[in-house]
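Postdoc handover notes: sequence design on the structure in folder B. Input tokens:
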């Protein structure tokens, strides 16, 4: 594990900005696991990542499908898709097979962001970014970002 950073984020605009900056470091095949309670700011951070990938659409947590896909691009203009998974409503980890999750664990043409990854059971991609968000209440959020697995 390589610790990257812990930052305090005062409000949702700053959370969007953090996501935007994080997107600049993402490459095809990257997976970002977002840990944090309901209301921690996972979707807000994902919105920032989307903006950083040139995606203007509002990001809403996918509900019935569990997965939403968006067309984005990196700073050089190379197409980079965003796969946004929210496993909050997953009934049981076996349902992961039903959504064909393995294609999202090493996304060839994009990056995958997963809210509530722990609901997917005991699996992990070969390498991933781990983001932990702690709700500090009105004073904002504490966000820790680290990288894990094969470089
Ligand atoms: P989650 O996806 O983790 O459930 P959301 O991204 O939907 O959480 O955010 C829940 C609420 O918290 C939203 O109203 C959002 O604007 C707000 N929020 C997000 N980040 C922050 C922050 N750093 N400080 C204060 N409020 C925030
Ligand atoms: Mg959410």
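Designed sequence:
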């Amino acid at each position: 594990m390589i610790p990257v950073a812990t930052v305090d984020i005062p409000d949702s605009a700053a959370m969007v900005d953090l996501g935007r900056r994080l997107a600049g470091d993402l490459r095809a095949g990257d997976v970002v696991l977002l840990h944090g309670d309901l209301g921690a700011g996972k979707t807000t951070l994902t919105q920032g990542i989307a903006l950083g990938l040139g995606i203007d659409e509002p990001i809403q947590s996918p509900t019935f499908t569990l997965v939403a896909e968006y067309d984005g691009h990196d700073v050089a203009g190379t197409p980079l898709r965003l796969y946004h998974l929210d496993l909050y409503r997953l009934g049981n980890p076996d349902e992961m097979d039903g959504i064909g999750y393995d294609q999202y664990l090493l996304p060839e043409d994009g990056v995958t962001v997963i809210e509530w990854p722990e609901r997917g059971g005991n699996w992990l991609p070969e390498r991933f970014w781990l983001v932990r968000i702690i709700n500090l209440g009105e004073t904002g959020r504490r966000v820790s970002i680290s990288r894990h697995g094969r470089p």
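Context for whoever picks this up: The domain at 2-148 is CATH 3.40.50.300 (Rossmann fold). Don't rerun without checking with the PI first.
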